[in-house]
Amino acid sequence: MCATCGCSEESGGTRIVMLREDDAPDHPHPHPHPHPHPHEHAQSNDAGETVTIEQKVLAKNNLVAERNRTWLSDRGVAAVNMMSSPGAGKTTLLERTITDVGGRRPVAVIEGDQETRLDADRIRSTGCAVVQVNTGAGCHLDAEMMQDALTALSPVAGSLLMVENVGNLVCPALFDLGERSKVVIISVTEGTDKPLKYPYMFAAADLILINKADLLPYVDFDVDQCARHARSVNPAVRVLTVSATTGEGLPLWYDWLADQR
Ligand code: MG
Q1: How far does the centroid of ligand 1 lie from the alpha carbon of residue 16, in Å?
Q2: What is the value of pTM for the model shown?
Q3: How far is the CA of 90 from the centre of ligand 1 (A)?
């Protein structure tokens, strides 16, 4: 859990930026890390104390998440939390999804990354409302960040709110944001055994997307085996194979999204 890396105790570096239409794109530049080794080990050497801190952090998070859930429900906004390792294709899938379904339903995006607003700039260029959350040393979005992002974004009633979490298959699974559903994306350039190695993430998923299907002829990835592994930790989970590049399988993804209301 997150206390293992200690990032939940280091929320001081969080920045939330609402992108405006006339904003110039971000120019990435290295930021000095606020702490020399933020992802070392838990602050406490005492196992009992560490567990207590974890429980308090998650209990506080769950309270705020419930507030977010009520806020979203009152406005008829359906939030979908997109989680994956870095490079699975979350942002590309979002760009394509916004372009394909944005005409049918208002879409807004919350972008989570440790640094830069590169992904938010990409989403902004589709014409979609977007807010960037930079987590600094943190390796996941939490409910408070979501709350602040909702205030900045103010998604219109009835909209679909896509949340791109920080690329990480561990901590984001444990932090409820108040979303309606969780989607886990794995790409075929990753290992077939990812669901077994990161069971908490795959167990939390309402839907699993196996992305980059267009690369299957070039990589050693067994789609059926991956789906079996996913169902071994989450028996009822739906698994779709898609390519955000060629559009393969996306109509089923859009049908699933249409049901998220
Ligand atoms: Mg991204």
Answers
A1: 16
A2: 0.86
A3: 5
